[in-house]
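Researcher: Next entry in the queue.
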Amino acid sequence: MNNEHHSTMKTIIKLTSLAAVAWVATALFSQCSSSTEKDSETEQEETQAMDDPRSYDGRRWTNGLTYEIFIHAFADGNGDGIGDFKGATQKLDYLAELGVEGIWLMPIHESPSYHKYDVVDYRSIHPDYGTMEDFKTFLNEAHKRGIKVIIDFVINHSGRDHIWFQEAIKGKDNPYRDFYVWKTLEEIEAEGSVMKEATGDSPNPTQWHEREGEDELYYGFFWGGMPDLNYDHQPLRDSIYTIGKWWLTEVGVDGFRLDAAKHIYQDYRMEDSHAFWVEFREEMESAKPDVFLVGEVWDEAEVVAPFLAGLHAVFNFDLGWSILNLLQNDEELPEDRTRIDQQAFLEKYAEIRKFYMGVTPHFVDATFLTNHDQNRIMSELSGDEVRARMAANLLFTLPGSPFIYYGEEIGMKGVKPDEEIREPMVWGAPGEDPVQSTWREPVHSTHEAVTPANQQYNDKGSLWAHYQMLVQQRKASPALLNGAMVPVDLQVDGLLAYYRQAEDEKVLLVHNLTDEEISLTQDMLPEGVELDEAKLISVNEISETGKLRGFSSWMFSVASAE
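Model: Structure for this entry, 562 residues:
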């Protein structure tokens, strides 16, 4: 699609009401960027490039729905209670019916832990999940349905049971010693990194770990069972590159989700981490030109953005936090977060995009609500399905490539510890579905607390049906799928509004973020928007024209003429 603005297209909308909003966003941008000020013509070009659909590179990855799966908990195909690829293969039609176009698999390699982020063999499939042939069958069947598959590639660290580490601990002269980072206590104290501040992605404050009889400690950002790999050592780099290329070319995966991408080097060497991902991308693209690489950089946008020099995509944690902020009540909002209103949300969104654009216009914005490391969205909203639907409305009508966490579409619940946000997918009541995982007894997502997927699947009023509707609507709308986003200030408290505009379609989204009904009149809307032509993206029953019920959304087609 050619995404430059048509010189012949004249949109009959007056945009003068947006000028103040655009100016505020520009002012915010200039405060948050160290780049020099640009003249108005350059700023206009940059704004166009920032929201240019080409920046999402549909050839590489979808702007439709990507679905995160924890195989352990998803579907059990052999009856041992643990999810596996035979079970997941049986549920591919379910995913296709939902509208899934991409799958992200949490770690699938051999590991001593249930979560498998401490890998002991990077070329393996964990026996609990099946064989390599089982995985290839799953992969091939997904591809037949037009679904791409990326796997978690955990290369910031290995497990301590990995053969590399087991060799490394045999002595300083072992050829695998330098696959890991070793220092004496004196060296560690000299660089001031004995302890670190506990963070969201690792509550563990101890970075350096002792071994009995050793005068050197090894570095492990997350904990002692996950020693960090040493990317200053070229043989280690080469080994990782070879393994990555093998998965792309010999096995056939479509790309990688890169765990802990921020921590390849210690935080004071962040620029080295940026440079590593540039090289990693070059190596992977040499094997598979259309590979997709999405990184986990758990931080705010100004820290996340530089990683886009190497990665095609980064997860937009800032956006997820901001959507929650809009919808949580005062009791639910974390103490360390300040309440924002709808206009502050739009400014925050513009700020995020500005940081990303400062690195490259060719990025995939991996948007999401919550993932496997966070409390589930339904629990963050105290089980309120009305607000959960509104969160989905926002996710699927904003730009980006939306990801959801398995079970989100049926309202699964979960609050940390981690095991309780990774409970078995709820397919049916006990005994109703033979692929039901029973890997642990659920605390939050029981079949009584969550309406099972097999029931929601056939219920047009279910949360599952709402997600399916949003996915289908997004696929059918060039503006929602690929269009620019332009904020609109309707000057009504609680109403969030923005245009989505593509070459051949323009729509206006209006979201009521309150639990109160809000009246809209024709004179409140921009020219070219007709009130009686609104499409309701409702979480409640349809209201009379001009009445937008609490936590509901309207989408208007914007009149345009050649």
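Model: The chain is about 30% helix and 15% strand.
Researcher: Noted, moving on.
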